[in-house]
Design goal:
Helix content of chain A: 55-70%
Largest interface: A-B, 29 and 32 residues
Structural class of chain A: mainly alpha
Order of helices and strands of chain A: HHHHHHHH
Number of strands of chain B: 0
Oligomer: heterodimer
Strand content of chain B: under 5%
Largest sheet of chain B: none
Number of domains of chain A: 1
């Protein structure tokens, strides 16, 4: 039988603060995904289109660079919307701590996609992306939504085993 | 306060505080895009959420949650169809979506259902 884990005093609040801060990261960065200018696909590329193009101009992983060049960039409006919605939803769900482990996994995936695009671009600090991945790993491993989050309020009432595991 | 009411209260406080971003510009301080339209909405809904939490009223909390979700959908529609009503961004959409989910979820907490 598993032993109950007793967290040090202050640890639950700290985990909640880290979860909320991570949510604010995604909320703020969703803000510059702008469909109004085709996500930056203009005569002078900027925004999401510019950063996505770095995957081709400064490749990190050649198969990913190929995927970006031949699939993502030619269909950029669709992918722009996918990125906008994924990042906005990441911010929303992590903010209130709902299905936190699921969204931590999504955050790892989204961060990996970003890393594979910009890691070798000029003026990037690689540790930014490694730390982003690690913070989502922590949110997943600690089930951070159970502390001062909706997962903590609702989890005991969920019958679905998969939903309980993802919270 | 019971835990779901406390949770709803702090979501309301977060909404009121978010209006401060109407005076910030750019990185790193503008976490959420707040405008002359969205800031009053955030303050009003936030204050009502706090009141609903103090009254320990899950039906009010659910209604305010629905209001946030509707507001989030309006912003999303603006982004999708290119009209300007709130001049919000995807950050505004994300924040209000979260607050809406949070309040709706808190209203459905088992602690609230035993009260019904």
């Amino acid at each position: 039988m598993a032993e109950a884990v007793i967290l040090p005093r202050g640890a639950p609040a700290t985990l909640a603060a880290v979860r909320v801060a991570t949510a604010l990261l995604w909320i703020q960065n969703a803000g510059w995904k702008t469909p109004g200018d085709d996500f930056g696909r203009t005569s002078s590329p900027r925004g999401l289109f510019l950063f996505t193009g770095y995957a081709v101009d400064h490749p990190v992983f050649p198969p990913f660079a190929w995927l970006v060049e031949h699939v993502v960039l030619p269909n950029f409006l669709v992918f722009g919307w996918v990125v906008l919605l994924v990042e906005a939803l990441l911010g929303a769900f992590l903010l209130v701590g709902l299905a936190t482990r699921l969204w931590a996994l999504v955050g790892i995936g989204q961060t990996l996609a970003i890393t594979l695009s910009v890691l070798n671009a000029p003026h990037e600090w690689h540790w930014s992306y490694f730390l982003m991945i690690l913070i989502h790993v922590v949110l997943f491993a600690t089930a951070a939504g159970r502390y001062y989050g909706l997962d903590g309020l609702l989890r005991d009432s969920w019958q679905n085993r998969w939903l309980r595991r993802m919270s | 306060m019971r835990p779901p009411d406390r949770f709803a209260f702090w979501l309301g406080v977060a909404s009121v505080v978010s209006a401060v971003f109407v005076i910030t510009r750019g990185d790193p301080w503008q976490l959420v895009k707040m405008t002359a339209v969205t800031a009053p909405v955030a303050v009003v809904l936030g204050l009502v959420a706090c009141l609903a939490a103090r009254r320990a009223d899950p039906s009010w909390q659910a209604a305010i949650g629905a209001a946030y979700l509707l507001a989030a959908l309006v912003v999303l529609a603006e982004l999708a169809f290119g009209f300007s009503l709130t001049d919000g961004s995807a950050s505004t959409f994300s924040l209000w979506l979260g607050l809406g989910l949070g309040l709706a979820g808190a209203s459905r907490s088992p602690a609230n259902r035993t009260k019904e």
